[in-house]
Amino acid sequence: METGLAIRARQPAHDALPAEIYLPLVDSLFKEGSTLFLGTLFVIGSVFITYWKTGEILILYCALAVFAVAVARGVVMRAYLRARPTIKTIEAARRWEHRYSIGASASCALLSIWCFVSFAWTTDPLAPLVSFTMTIAYSAGIFGRNFANPRFVIIQILCTWAPITAALVIYGNIYHWIFAFLLIPTFLGIKLIAERLRRTLVEAVVTSRDMSLLAKRFDTALNNMPHGLCMFDSKRRIVVSNQKLKDQVGLPADIELKGSSVRELVDRIVEVGLLSDAGARELTDRLNAQLSGTDNAAFGIDMQNERTLEFTVQPMESGGMVALVEDITERKIAEAKINHLARFDALTGLPNRNVLRDRMEHALAEWRPDNMCAIHFIDLDQFKQVNDTLGHTRGDMLLEAVAQRLRTSIDADVISRFGGDEFVILQAPLKSLDQAETLAVRVLEALGGTYDLDGHKVVVTASIGIAVAENRIDPDQFLRNADMALYRAKAEGRGTWRWFEAKMEEKAQARRNLELDLRVALETEAFELYYQPIFNLKTKRIQACEALLRWPHRERGMVSPAEFIPVAEEMGLIVEIGNQVLYKACLECRRWPGEIAVAVNLSSIQFDRSNIPALVRETLAATNLSARRLEIEITESTLLQDTRRTRADLRQLAELGVKVSLDDFGTAYSSLSYLHSFPLHKVKIDQSFLRDLGDDERRVTLLRGITRLSAQLGLHVVVEGVETAEQLELLAAEESVDEVQGYLLCRPMPAADVRRLLFASYVAPAQAPSWPQSLRSDAA
């Protein structure tokens, strides 16, 4: 779109003008028809006067011709006015412009002919004077109306100038010739005036167009703003507003706000029912304060339709101001949701640990001996089992149900979901310990029982640890105390509650120290392996040695595996420790004589988190140990998890040539089905079957039954825990027992000692099968 500056700079030809400029120029030709009528009337009158004075018939013909052309031009003008709404293109406008120009040129030509006749055929001095004067005057008027088209102006000048000049030159004297010469600059001046008028009109049309376009753009932008806008002048009257503002404040679209004051605007909002009286006063005061410059902060107003509008006011140099109005309802709702999510649990709707900590800090800050507070740390028993068997969706349903029971049955300062299946209750103020005990009992009663989870019935109990702030205590330590009490409650049977005691902190600190030391021991490979021989009951020689993990602590001495193995399993370190044990045991076995094998225990956690067949394959390759000299011992807990995967892993081990032994058989969830459903080579009968055998025939019968059944299934039978000669004698009499192991025969010993023992036993001369004297002495 061309601008006014571009039009002025280029001075385009008439035909090059754009439609939005060209059409108004053509339209200007047909405006003010009354002036054309009056001018024509005076001209015709003048022509008739000269005819009356001279009696020249040609002048009469000129008068009639001028009248006919005037009538024709009037008809064309009326036709244009009727067709005006349909004239939208340059081509259509040009046709009307040509019609107008033909009529104007004809009028000029007739007047100049009248002037020529007056000079050539009349002797009355009045006729030339009147005709010349009227022709020049009328022509100047016509040029003024036709200045829009430069070509038409030139044509009309020629039509006027040529006959007049000819009359002056042919029929006049020397003075007339001088006057004819002076007509040239006269008509050139008229031409220049026409061009200037044209330029002025074009600039006016372009400016008008630009202003109109700018106004339309401003109006479009104003009414498509996402915010309402209201502009006040220095007299605090509205000069500009948009439709969005009316929509926001509930005003009709056709209402006129221009000229309204702040008070009048607010009153109209009140009238439509979207603003209360209190809100109206607040809005009026705040807007007036903004106008006065005493307040420039954005402010929000709550409307009666539950929407919230925010007003932002910007002062102007002229003394007025621009007010932007934004509907911030959705933003406020989103902020409220974010704030709620930051302080409340999304699943249960209970306060989260952020709220809990704030309330704890407040309660602890107000602590007094007669104004204590207590923390109840609650954990659902067997919640993981619900998740594993029924799925996480029903686990979430259980948490929601537990939260609802706590809300409806417990009156406490804060009931919070701490995370997972853990809930924390802050009890404040607390006057006596009996109050805390009473609340704990009520919580257990409320939470214990049956829950219906989408048609599935589950029975749930809870364990609680209680810590009482008997002095000003750090909130984190306060929670740790309750957590330690909870751990004690779960360790002592679940479904109960326990108080925090100071010795729990000592035990927890010892546990933390043990965890730290375990990590250091793993990093520095401080663990050692001891080996306990396993004897063939028939040959009385060492068949294999079981690798047993030992931890010589730099301060505590030798730490019992029963103490640190469970901790390592909970920490997840048992996988790395087991990998080290397997590698060291295989490496040591390579140094033993003959085909003596090494037995290595693998944790069920290793099977769950590692690819055991790949691990064994890599370890055998790294230590260059034959697979037939490695025995992997597993417990029954390994067979309980992911049965299909475990069976596949054991089958791959068997295909490698590695023997698999079922250790500690007869304890825990022992099932005879394991003996035939898994690819096992050995079964190690737990030492508990040998204890207190004596003359108890039932125990002896049970031991014989298990060993004989295992042997009949094709399994090698090993009995652990042989500690007396009577036990050894009883087992030696059993054909189904293949191997024995126990303190009677040999205690676990370091790698160097067992190596010497194995070489001594291996190189002993052949003799009748009997227990070596050194072993009998060692056992004694």
Can you walk me through this structure?
With 780 residues, this protein is α/β, with parallel strands linked by helices. Helix content is 57%, strand content 16%. It is built from 29 helices and 22 strands. The chain has an 8-stranded mixed barrel with strand order 13-14-16-17-18-19-20-21, surrounded by 4 helices. Strands 2-1-5-4-3 form a 5-stranded antiparallel beta sheet. A hairpin with a 5-residue loop joins strand 3 (299-302) and strand 4. Helix 14 (383-390) crosses helix 15. The radius of gyration is 57 Å and the shape is elongated. The N and C termini lie far apart (115 Å). The model is unreliable at 1-12 and 774-780 (pLDDT under 50).
